Each structure stands twice: as structure tokens, then as C-alpha cells.
Amino acid sequence: MNLFRFRTIQSNIAAALAFLIVIMAVVMGFIAYRLSTSAVQRTAQEFTAELIKQVNANIQSYVNNMENTSLLVLNNRGVRNYLSGESDDDASVTDFLKTIMLSRKDIASIGVFGYNGRFVSDGGIGNMNPNVSVPDQSWYRQAREGQGKVVISPSHVQPVFDDYRWVVSLSREVRNADNSRGLGILLVDLNFSVINDILSGIELGKRGYVFIVDQGGRIVYHPQQQLLYSNLKQEKIDEALALGSGSFISDEGGQSRIYTVQDSGFGWKIVGVSYVNELVNNKGQMQTSFVTLGGISLVVALLLSFLLSRNLSRPIHQMQKHMSEVEKGNFDIQVPVDSTREIGMLARAFNLMVVRIRELMAQVVKEQEFKRKSELNALQAQINPHFLYNTLDSIVWMAENNKSAEVVRMTSALARLFRASISKGSELVPIRNEIEHISNYLTIQKMRYRDKLDFHIDADDGIKHFLTLKVLLQPLVENAIYHGIKNKYGTGVIRISGEREGETIVLRVCDNGVGMDEEKRKTLLTPGASPAEGRGVGLINVHERIQLYFGAAYGLSIVSAPDEGTTVVVKLPAVDKSGKEGES
Q: Per residue in 397-413, is it b (16+ CB within 10 Å) or e — as a string?
């Protein structure tokens, strides 16, 4: 059968070539279509998997922070003594829980429920719902069975307290000091809005989303949670639980979805859902284009090949150059989105990936800075129990010897000292407040050590309205007493002075104690060093606090020599309450 019936060979060859070109164009177009859609789908799956991993890392970091917060309560002696009945001081436990709440704005409430019926929370006992049986709550039962292990609940309305907040609960058993028996249950309620804020901004196409389930298949978070509860929407939860970590595609025809599952490691599974038809949303247009290409390919084959090769190679080359920049660490770039649909989708995916990596890097830096500030604030808030015990012993001794005036003086100084140490508010206080605080502290120490210690404070009045970190001088004076003067023969003298040098406030703490050699002096402000006999632990923390708040140009310096005493110099910027530097 003659397929081509033209008058000339040239026409037949032209027709045959045209037919072959059309067939090859259709075949190659179909193959290119399949490969392109597969590559886009695979890239989208990989991107979704990476995005889910980052979300999991964020949530895991947040849960770890919650666990660390719970350890503060579990290891607190006052909490254990109250739950065991050794102490009736519920007010101090309430204040301790309130302190934790101030450092974690994302916590809705903290409560401790003793097996002996005792209860205390950050809000005291007034916010307890009398109509709810706490031991019947699932988080209570699971924590008791876990014997100290962390239990994290799905999202729920907390009925134990009167405010009925939507929360995710972390609970674990509080055990005695030797871990031989349980004393009660710790409950930390996390604001559900925190998880909602983490996940609500995640976009997987126009209709894609992320949800979380626990190991029992219960929904922890879902952007369409009401539709699930009313059975208007179904999810492949059983398949997601059975998969572990990975991806699978649901068989739903035009509504097929790609499920990307990531195991969190603590009982939750984070699932990203993408719609397959969104990954290749121009499928019909591509098919029409390939059919049309078969009819006109004979006329425009060469021109089209040239245009396509140029249009395809240029954006790929641009993307390659931008990828090289990313490899060098430059994330402040954006690939121009080309009109070619496949390349444009890749460019958009690449741009989104770069933006997300940049955001995650900034978030990690912010979280680390916040964590360090929290650690330093917690360190500052601690009160040395040995100092308290010794001071109270001194007060008892003076009372037994009828020294009422000295009892009043020491008790008043101790009260003012503690009021300044545990007061709420800004981390920065006027220098006059800090001078008053250290004066009270030294008054107590002088009364304890009597002729062994004397002190003088001489700070210019012109600097007292400038701001300094709260409880800044006490660690410096403690080091002077316990490591300088205590081991000295005769009376030890501490001199505290303050003056302004240009735009810098300089405070000095001098003692005439035993001093130290050059090698020991160098280790005191060296990060990671381990000063002998614990000396310098407070100094390095004060130094880091100053640099964290004011910058590397400020901090501590130490001048000392054996048997010649020690001087610690504190440099701060001249900042007043208005936040302006250099104004008097």
C-alpha cells in the first residue's frame, strides 16, 4: 500500500519526513511530558519530605524545651517536699511555677497533683474546677503508668481549670529524691495556638496541608479538624501509622493525594498532604500543545528546536549559577521564574526552598539566643541556699543572745536583699538599686563575719540613674569574700566604686584578699575553662550576661597578684531609662 501518493519524489520524501517528524515529535513529546511530570512530582515529594522534616525538627525542639521545663519542676526540692507532706509551703511552690510561666509565654498553665490530694498551680488553688475528677483524666493515668516518663496528649480542651483552654498536655510523674516512689503528677499545658502558628503557615500547593496524629491515631492538629469530626473529610491515618516514615499516594483518581509521613520520635507522626493534580496543573494544556505540535512541526521544526533549546538552556544555566551561589552560602538570591512551565515550577520550588532554609536558619539563631537568655535568667533567679541558712543561723544566734537591734538590722537587710533578687520586671535596673542591693548583702556578711570583713561603697551620684543588669555585683562580691578574704589573715576590706568615663560606666570591686597568680586569672573569663575550687563560675556568667545584653565591647576584666588582692572591673554603656546612650 502506497501511503504517500505525490507526483514527485521530493514531495514523497517531504511527506515521509513530515510524517516521521510528526510521529517522533508526538512520541518524544509524550515521553518528555511523562519525564517532566515525574521529575516535578519527585522534586515536590522530596521538597515536601524535607519541609516535613524541618517542621518535625521545630516541633521536636519545642517538645524538648517543654521536657526541660518539666525537669525544673521535678528536680525542685520545694515541690517534692510539698507533695510528700514534709512542707506546707504551697505559696513558694506557686511562686516557683509562676516564675517558670514568666519565662515561657507559650505555656497555658502548670499544675502539680499529689497522690495525697495536695494540689498547686501557677494560679494557686482558686482556678481548679471542682466538678472534674483529675485521676480520671487520660494524661493523669498515662503519666502514673509511665513512672516518670514524658506523656504528650493530643489537642483537647482542658477541663481541669476554669478557663477551658484548647491545649496539648505534657504530663509526667513526680518522684521522690531517690526515685523509689511516686509523689504526684506534673501537668504542663501548652497553648494549642503555638502548634497552630508553626503549621498554619506551611503551604503545599493551593490545597495541600500538614496534620499531626499520635500513635493511637488521634488527631493532634489538623487545619480542617471540624470536617474530620463531622465525617465530612477522611484521612489515610491507618496507612500513615503503618508506614513509619516515607511517602505513599492515595488511589482516588483525580483527587489522588501524596502523603509524606515523618515519625517524630516521641509518639507523633507529622503528615504532609499534597494533591497530585496540583503538581501538574497544566496537564490538559500540555496535551493540546503536543497534538498541535504534530500538525505544524513540518513547517516550524527547525525554528522550534532552536527556540526551545535556547529557551530551555538559558533558565537552566541561570538556575545552575544560582545553585552554585547557594553552595557557597549565599541565600539572598532568587531564581527568575521562566515562562516554561516545568522549569518555572522547578524555579519556584528552588526559590521556596532557599527562602525556607533562610527562615529556618534565622529561627535557629533566634531560638538559641532565646535559650541562652532563659538559662542566664534562670541562673540569676537562683538564691544561694547556703547563704540563706548561714544568715538565718546568725539571726537565731543573735536572738538567743538578746541582741534584738542586730536581729532587726540583719532581718531588714535580708528582706530588702531578697525583694530585689526575686522582684519581677525588667532585667535592667538603675545603678542606685544595684548599689542598695549590694549594700544590704554586705551588711549581712559583715554582721556574720564581724571583725573579719569591712566594706566601703563610693559611687558617683551622676551615674546612679544609668541602667545596669539586675544582681550584677553580688557574684563579684561573693567571689571576693569566699575566695579572697575568707582565706586571709586579719580584716578583709571590699571597696566598691563607680564612675563615668566618656560614654562608659566603670564599676570596680576591689578586695585586699589573697589574690591569685596570672595563670589562674586568665582562666576566670575563658569560656569552657574549669576554675579550681569553683572560683570564677559566677564571673564568667556575669561576663556573658553583660556581652549578651550590651555587646562584646563591654564586660569584665580582672587585675590580681598573689597576696596583693584582686580588682574586678565592670564596663557598661551609659544607658538611661529612655534607652538613650550618653545622656546625663
A: ebeeeeeeebbeebbeb
Query: What is the torsional sign of CA 285, 288, 294, 297?
Result: negative
Q: What is the Cα–Cα distance from 141 to 137, expressed in whole angstroms? A: 6
Per residue, what are the HEC states of 520-540?
HHHHHCCCCCCCHHHCCHHHH
- Per-residue pLDDT tens digits for 109-163: 888 888 888 888 876 555 677 788 888 888 888 888 888 888 888 777 788 877 7
Read out DSSP for 185-211? EEEEEEEHHHHHHHHHT--BTTTBEEE
How far apart (Å, rounded) are the C-alpha atoms in residues 356 and 343?
20
Q: Is 184 inside any structural domain?
A: yes
How many independent structural domains does the chain possess?
2
The number of residues in the chain equals 584
The answer to whether 184 and 209 are in contact (CB under 8 A) is no
Dist. CA 417–CA 422, nearest whole Å: 9
**DSSP strand pairing (566-573 vs 555-560):** antiparallel
CATH number, domain with residue 166: 3.30.450.20
Provide the grid cell at 523.
582562666
- Among residues 174, 195, 216, which one ends one of the domains? 195
pLDDT tens across 61-71, in order?
Answer: 777 777 887 88
Q: Decide: helix, strand or coil at residue 464.
A: coil
**CA 472, 477, 480, 483 torsion-angle sign:** negative
Domain boundary, last residue among 163, 195, 227: 195
